Amino acid sequence: MYQVTFDEKDTIVRIDRELMDPQTVSRFLDLVNLAAALKDSRLADDWEKMFTRMLGFPTGVRLIRDPAVNKGTAFTEKEREVLGLRGLLPPKVHSMEDQVLRVLENVRRKPNDIEKYIFLISLQDRNKTLFYRIVTDYIEEMMPIIYTPTVGQACMEYGHIFRRPRGIFISSKDRGRMAELLRNWPYKDIRIIVVTDGERILGLGDLGADGMGIPVGKLALYTACAGIHHSLSLPITLDVGTENVALLNDPLYIGLKQRRLRGAAYDDFVEEFIMAMEEVFPRALVQFEDFANVNAFRLLEKYRERICCFNDDIQGTASVTLSGIYSALRITGGRLSDQKFLFLGAGEAGLGTADLTVSAMEGEGLSLQEARERCWFVDSKGLVVKGRSDLTGHKRRYAHDHDFIPDFLTAVETLKPTAIIGVSGRARMFTRPILEAMARINGRPLVFSLSNPTSNTECTAEEAYAWTEGRAIYTSGSPFDPVVYGGKRFVPAQGNNVYIFPGVGLGAIASQARHVTDEMFSVAAKTLAALVSEEDLEQGSLFPPLPKIREVSAAIAAAVAEVAYERGLATVPQPENLQEVIKSLMYEPKYQSYV
User: Fold this and answer.
1) Separation of alpha carbons 62 and 70, rounded Å
2) Nearest to residue 431, comparing CAs of 404, 466, 470?
3) What torsion do the CA atoms of 401, 406, 408, 413 make, to the nearest 10 degrees?
4) Strand segments (E) across 300-403
5) Is the pLDDT of residue 393 over 80?
6) What local confidence, expressed as pLDDT, does residue 30 receive?
């Protein structure tokens, strides 16, 4: 295709063979119309057709099969004539509003969420603008379908519901040619990459190449929730094998049927990917997603000072959880540094949250050691204490001098935490005795049941309120319906990373930051908490309503960009009105006029 360059008098000064955006197409064809009218009005259509074909803009069947520019039945009469669509579409011209009604009707008649997921992903394959209009305007209804919890089931069935490929799959057979694979992607100005190796998909474990549903879903939320145009994003799966025997024996599995690369072979594979990414997409922010503990912390530490990157499971979860704690403290009173946190699960989410919380408590005047002593962990073997010889990695920094306790209930009764935070990936671990103990110890216990999907949640909203006599301050990683207890209606807001990562990504892109820092996630947590209204808190919601998510993302993006400018990490000049500039960058899913 061609890129047309105009001067200040709207004269064409250059035509380059590049991807041509719809706005340029529209502007160019306006000039063609004018030129044709001045010569002979009867030639106008011929001029439009000639220049449209010369520029390489898709026409006819190619156009309606290109999801980036397809408008379906919303193509106007003029567009149908000029672009060779006459007869390829039914005669009725529909508005986008009409199309939205049709999509909603079809989604809502589907018998279950996985069928709704398949329908919406198929819409994304046909008409991206309409897909993002639906998701943006109906985020509360659509997010649980295109992301958690339904995306978990979609990943488990990915090879069986597979329709069309998305993103880039790089397998261990592609060593030595990764840059070549990345260049196969049709869009060249990639600003955000979400990459996974599929080893720890949500709380479901090793799903190998079937984990591609996660990067695809995350990037859909970047567009819907932060307005990052879909052409700027790229989902990538690194297929290094799987330890999932069921997948290895499944004839419909889409990935390599081999055991996972480990050790130096794995590290060399990831290093080649990073080098290829730096070469082909040098301005891209990389989000590491759903890597197993054995690699997640290691890769983050290795690359965070080299490229612009972050790990959402570590840093994004930490930020949204810390924000929830800040909101809860507006209800209970007191300072962060006065709390005692007991985590169930000592993986990426828990340790990342503890690290960010410790940093925040240091900001309130505690020493590093004092802050860490307010964070305790119970893993699969029991309380994390110094006397244990089986501790590895980041767990050691939270191993305190204390007698070993084998179970979570005894740990609650002994340590008397003000908050319990579930990041175990194990269902129903916050039992009735545990929640009753939290209610005896605290007037308003903080109960964060963050494991997802819903099948893995430590406790439901109804259980949390019922077993604490309605006194729990509750949030979860998966959505729950409102609960009425003791005559009061509670509306638990989902503590989802979607409140954080889209805004962080937008802020990093807007400032073209060289790195993403922990300070940015700390600022994001405070910004998010400040946007929670008193009305939200009164009904038990620790986060703003999801329909406000684009407002939230814009505010977080501005705060993150401010950090980038203050710390000398931005690579573009700071604008006078940063927040307005950021809002102007946010893509609004509307149809463009092509003629």
Assistant:
1) 9
2) 466
3) -60
4) 309-311, 341-344, 375-379, 382-383
5) no
6) 58
What are 248-257's pLDDT values in tens digits?
999 999 999 9
* pLDDT value at residue 18: 46
Residue 20 CA to its chain's centroid (Å): 28
Cα–Cα distance for residue pair 228/192, rounded to 1 Å: 9
Residues sharing a CB contact under 8 Å with residue 334, sequence separation 6 or more, in sequence order: none
Which listed residue (218, 395, 465, 499) is catalytic? Answer: 218
Which two three-digit tokens encode residue 34? 């004018």
Four-CA torsion 24, 25, 30, 33, nearest 10 degrees: 150
By three-state DSSP, how is residue 194 classified? Answer: strand
209/236 Cα distance (integer angstroms): 10
Reply yes or no on whether 594 is catalytic: no
Give first-to-last CA distance, the chain, whole Å.
17
Q: Is 218 a residue of the active site?
A: yes
Pairing of strands 375-379, 341-344: parallel
Name the active-site residue from 2, 117, 138, 147: 147
d(CA 245, CA 504): 37
Instruction: Let me know: does 338 contact 366? Beta carbons within 8 Å.
Output: no
Q: Which helix (H) or strand (E) holds 354?
A: helix 348-363
- The CATH code of the domain at 98-307 is 3.40.50.10380
Q: Where are the domains of the chain?
A: 3-82, 98-307, 315-495, 499-585
Strands 375-379 and 382-383: antiparallel
Domain 499-585: which topology? Answer: Rossmann fold (3.40.50)
Cα 210 to Cα 158: distance, rounded to the nearest angstrom: 5
Rounded average pLDDT over 543-571 = 98
CATH superfamily of 315-495: NAD(P)-binding Rossmann-like Domain (3.40.50.720)
Q: Which two tokens stand for residue 435?
A: 């929640």
- 367 residue type, one letter: S
For the segment 279-317, what is each residue's pLDDT rounded down to a tens digit? 999 999 999 999 999 999 999 999 999 999 999 999 999
Q: Are strands 12-16 and 192-196 parallel, antiparallel or unpaired?
A: unpaired
pLDDT tens-digit profile of 404-429?
A: 999 999 999 999 999 999 999 899 99
* Helix ranges, 10-76 (H): 22-39, 44-55, 60-64
Tell me whether the CATH fold assigned to 98-307 matches the one assigned to 315-495.
Answer: yes
Q: Where are the alpha helices (DSSP H) in 147-262?
A: 150-156, 158-161, 178-183, 213-226, 245-248
Predicted local distance difference test score (pLDDT) of residue 13: 43
